[in-house]
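Risk mitigation, structural track. In case the binding assays with molybdenum atom fail to produce interpretable data, a predicted complex structure has been prepared as a fallback.
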Amino acid sequence: MFIKKAVSIKPSEITPKEIYQQRRQFLKTSINTGLGLAATGLLATHTADVFAGYGLKTLKHVKNTKYTVDDDLTEYKDVTTYNNFYEFGTSKSSPAATAHKLNTTPWSIKVEGHVEKPATYHLEDLMNEQTLEERIYRLRCVERWSMVIPWLGFPLSELIKKVKPTSKAKYVEFSTLYRPEEMQGQRRGVLDWPYVEGLRMDEAMNPLAFLAVGLYGEVLPNQNGAPIRLVVPWKYGFKSIKSIVTIRFTEQQPVSSWTRAAPREYGFYSNVNPNVDHPRWSQRRERRIGEFLKRKTLMFNGYADEVAHLYAGMDLKKYF
Ligand SMILES: Nc1nc2c(c(=O)[nH]1)N[C@H]1C(S)=C(S)[C@@H](COP(=O)(O)O)O[C@H]1N2
Ligand SMILES: [Mo]
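Fallback model:
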């Protein structure tokens, strides 16, 4: 399908979202109606309309064909207008409407706790040291919807290796920016701000754990967690914390914002698991945004080969 085509593109090529969407639309149309090439002009116009006013900076990257999926990509418009980012309100549409108020330059990340080399990284320096790669991941929200997103970024393990955690470092804790003047959702006590998330050290070092700075070939739109956010594709979406300013290495298991808010509903692990219900709903199925029929939720969101070994011997009903 579409993804197979996309991965054959030269690694050095910058592929802005318009190109993705045109290819995707073209493939869809030629399959559905057999119109072929004649239809592309019309579709190109349509695509340009949809993206009028975005115009974000493109990022140079290579495609990592090891991390891709056969599923169709979720439309750029859905990825950037249907969001969970409570710092900008609790509705799905408010982040896209209000996140432009967030000033993301300059931005730095403080790395502290049990590390040999604590540091404050300016985002630009960090990015200059990394080769950005594109990875296509599924993201499954605990609320039973999912998306497939082409992220740009680098493995979390790269950053961890730089700061050299000591033997006391058993967990990694991440915090989001706290700036209620620009994040109007933080003026209300919906969650205990700043938003906090955490991973066990071996989870954080797993090659799938990713720090994203872009999507669809461009810098992250603010509503998706600019300028840098975590993506942990085998866990429910809320583990993928946005707009990170602090990374701390700890001995104790961090208490994440959602666990603090509702410990019976949101555990520390929060691995995608169709066999463990949320106390208020089943997790067996999900709706892929843009699709009508529901699909079955996969164990570890389809990433069991990569991550099941991390939980060998653990009772996943207890450690939900
Ligand atoms: N700081 C912060 N990070 C967050 C959230 C949030 O409210 N605040 N929502 C989470 C949830 S519930 C999901 S599903 C994903 C959504 O990411 P997306 O909007 O880029 O698809 O972000 C996660 N990261
Ligand atoms: Mo979510």
